[in-house]
Amino acid sequence: MTPRELRADIPALGEGTAYLNYGAHGPSPEYVVEAAGEFIADHEYGAAETDPYSHAFGTYDAVRERIAAFVGAEPAEIALTESTTDGIGRIAAAIDWEPGDVVVRTDLEHPAGVLPWKQLESAGVEVRVVETDAGRVDTDAFAEAVADARLVCFSAITWTHGTRLPVAELVDIANDAGAFTLVDAVQSPGQVDVDVNRWGAD
Description:
pyridoxal phosphate; aminotransferase; Aminotransferase class V-fold PLP-dependent enzyme; transferase; globular; about 40% helix; PyrdxlP-dep_Trfase_small
């Protein structure tokens, strides 16, 4: 599919409309909206043939396989969540945090992705924010911040500046410090090639 063909399939990008991908939200192509509608209709009306759960889980498995192939993962490594915010929240809630644990994030994270870490502060978790310059991370400052961290969270492509962070390098720094890494890469697929195995993030 060419960029012109894709543009023609997005009603919001009609004649005379200029769209700049700013990374927070984008209009969907018609085929995405149609596929979502078909899934809902099949789920609601196809239950008489089998049951809604078989249909849903079969679809989830097929989606996991396609996403895995697209981002260089195994299907079993793909978790489907309501949104990136929901996924980050689930990870934050799944860890058995102790008072004094450290989470490190950059100042480039989406506000919704910051909330789970803010909530942990009330449980005695220290949340450190790595300050950046024009959407760029100083790796020395990053290494200093993550030295005793339990988890490090950052975006692959920043929603504020559109800058691409050196994901594999930042993951290596965090791993060397013994920290888990959570990469918010929601802006990446379809914009840049993604191979999560090369990144090495958790």
